[in-house]
Amino acid sequence: MAKKLEVASLSEWGFFTLPRPCVIAGPCSAESEEQVMETAKQLKEFGINVFRAGIWKPRTHPGCFEGVGVDGLRWLQRVKRELGLKVCTEVASEKHVFECLKYGIDMVWIGARTSANPFLMQEIADALRDTDIPVLVKNPVNPDLDLWIGALERLNNAGVRKLGVIHRGFTAFDKMKYRNNPQWQLAIELRSRYPEMPFFCDPSHLAGCKEYIPELSQRAMDLGLDGLMVESHCNPSCALSDAKQQLTPAELKDLLYNRIKVRDNDTDNLSYKEGIVSLRAQIDVIDDNLLYALGTRMNVSRKIGKYKKDNNIAILQTSRWDSLLANAIEKGRTYGLPEEFVKAVFTAIHDASVNAQNEILSDKNGERS
Ligand code: PEP
Ligand code: MN
Predict the structure, then answer these.
(1) Element containing residue 251 per DSSP (H, E)
(2) How close is the Cα of 245 to the center of ligand 2, in Å?
């Protein structure tokens, strides 16, 4: 049973000076004092006032750059002192939290690999008890809404009220367009369960490369999210982590000022036009998911085609098709879908699968899988 979360509004944080989107920007990793200071200086020039940099980096493989550690906290302190920016970094243990508190870090975020781990979340929540710094929780790597909510509950139970979330997408088994699968429907669900909670999107980790950052940022704005956490590096091509997805400060400025349209989020004067934009954004999300599901289904169909070929089995087994269709019609009915519609959709899907399997059986494409 979902518990109510008691969260402070973003305005109570007293952090963000610009109107929506609230932006947190900075490099994936703090690499050197010069890189940190130079990036922060360039970001400040166009109004960014919350600076991010990873100090302890969770890397998939050992031997990669794993962050500069506590030295980086001193550089963040300098950004705060000399440039007046708020500074934040990722914490993944109680020790990280204590170090951040010691160095006056203004805000922390929990990474996607950590929010998936209830033991670590409890340890971090306990370390944050009786502090007042804001905490942002990225979605866990796996698309488990309850696990994400559980992480928020642990922090909230420990008295963290300045609590927000960051949607950074989910690990996908199949290769897809983006580095992490957006599965926006999970973000929409969380947003509707906790409409008061500050909600950020991280288009950098969603995208995995800078070309897709504008469309993902726009999607976040269309869904009415509060802010963006964007990776920005003064010299992205030399970055020690996530080089492909980092924008230069100039590119970030262009994104924010010229490339994304921010929709008004005020429900008091929500006009018809704004309503339709947000509904269409939801439809676009669902269509993305449909296409992703159809692509995944087609891959499985091809595998079946290959399997049948290897075992010398005919492509079409009518009894299987009859029961699949009857099942779909029955299920569709529970979702309010007319029989004719389900029949037409599944016939199209089935025809395409049969064609794909035929291609595999034919000599020309016989070895494709
Ligand atoms: C990051 O923000 O640099 C990071 C490691 O993010 P995530 O936890 O989303 O992978
Ligand atoms: Mn990163």
Answers:
(1) helix 249-254
(2) 8
Phi, psi of 234, rounded to the nearest 5 degrees: -70, -20
CB 207, CB 182: distance < 8 Å: no
Query: Which atom of ligand 1 sits closest to the CA of residue 57?
Result: 5
Ligand 1: atom nearest CA of 205 is 9
Residue 111: CB within 6 Å of ligand 1? yes
Convert the pLDDT of each residue in 131-170 to its tens digit. 999 999 999 999 999 999 999 999 999 999 999 999 999 9
Q: What is the pLDDT of residues 201-219, one digit of tens each?
A: 999 999 999 999 999 999 9
Cα(311) to ligand 1 centroid in Å equals 45
Least confident range from 261-270, 285-294, 346-355: namely 261-270
Q: Is 28's C-beta closer than 6 angstroms to any atom of ligand 1?
A: yes
Per-residue CA distances from 106 to 70, 162, 235 (Å) = 15, 12, 25
The answer to whether the bond into 143 is cis (omega within 30° of 0) is: no
Ligand 1 near 138 CB (within 6 A): yes
Joined tokens for residue 253: 């400025």
Residue nearest to atom 10 of ligand 1 (CA): 112
Query: What is the per-residue pLDDT across 319-344, written as a single tens digit (0 to 9) for each?
Result: 888 999 999 999 999 999 989 999 99
Distance from residue 205's CA to the centre of ligand 1 (Å): 7
Structure-token pair, residue 212 = 């897709």
Of 65, 202, 241, 245, the residue with max ligand 1 atoms within 8 A of its CB, to mutate for a pocket test, comes to: 202
Full DSSP string of 300-356: HHHHHHHHHHHTT--S--HHHHHHHHHHHHHHHHHTT--HHHHHHHHHHHHHHHHHH
User: From ligand 1's centre to the CA of 307, what distance in Å?
Assistant: 39
How much is the pTM?
0.81
246 alpha carbon – ligand 2 mean position (Å): 8
Q: Is 143 exposed, middle or buried (0-12, 13-18, 19+ CB in 10 A)?
A: middle
Q: Say which DSSP state 2 is in.
A: P
